[in-house]
Amino acid sequence: MSIKFKSLNKTIIKCKKCPRLVKFIKKISTEKRKQNIKETYWGKPVTGFGDYQAKILILGLAPAAHGGTRTGRAFTGDKSGEFLFKCLHKAKIANQSLSENLKDGLKLNSTYITNILKCVPPGDKPLKEELNNCSNYFNSEISNLKKLKVIITLGKVAFENCLKFYKKKYNLNKKIHFKHGKSYVLPDNIILIPAYHPSPRNVNTKLISLKMMTNLFKKVKKLSTI
After folding, report:
1. C-alpha distances in angstroms, 160 versus 32, 37, 92?
2. N or C end: fewer C-beta atoms under 10 angstroms in the chain?
3. Furthest-apart CA pair in the chain: how many Å?
4. How many CB atoms lie within 10 A of CB 82?
5. Domain 3-224 -> CATH class
6. What is the pLDDT of residue 1?
């Protein structure tokens, strides 16, 4: 692990800036879910993970209540993650098609995965203040990924918050709208691609399919030259 990421991740894990989120995580980790009742939940903010020399950044909204909040890794141990890693494996970005815990041997090819918000919010609805509190961590992650070429945002909230970061940093004049799979070149020449979230709802309503998302990740690989 790079020294910068090591220091950043330590800070993230210890963060208690948002009392509402701290309280909610404690509630989830204590009450647990029936099928995970015997497990010890991670119960802390969840850092990003993957390749620190990544050319691809995959950005979600927040860890799942009984996924990342339980396992300690984003998109690990929940239904959205199951679908995501199947697609990443088919696109040869992940070395395995399932991610269940921190020690399952998952490796990502030139890719880093993180969330805008490092803690799960009640009802998956973060407050503006919570997003603002967490924005510095995302800013540090993106600044430390020196070889970054493509950002894929999963869902509209992740997309909007990624744009917010760029509007603060650069004079972003052109109109960028959320449209699944569309490519936008940002002021620092990084390509932004919005995508639908790999949630069970989007999969079940056939808004997205395994083939459609796998093809998107294959396109991203070509754009990032990995």
Report:
1. 31, 36, 28
2. N
3. 52
4. 19
5. alpha beta
6. 67
Q: Quick one: tokens of 192?
A: 């932004």
Reference 134, options 154, 156, 115, 153; nearest CA is: 115
3-state DSSP call for residue 158? helix
**Six-digit token pair at 8?**
């950043």
Per the CB < 8 A criterion, the answer to whether 118 and 12 are in contact is yes
| One-letter identity of residue 44 | K
What are the structural domain ranges in the chain? 3-224
Q: Give the span between the Cα atoms of 32 and 10, in whole angstroms.
A: 25
CA proximity to 85, closest of 73, 155, 44: 73
* Mean per-residue pLDDT of the chain: 95
pTM of the predicted structure, to 2 decimals = 0.96
Could you tell me which residues come within 8 angstroms of residue 179 by beta carbon, excluding any fewer than 6 positions away? Answer: 194
CA distance linking residue 30 with residue 42, whole number of Å: 11
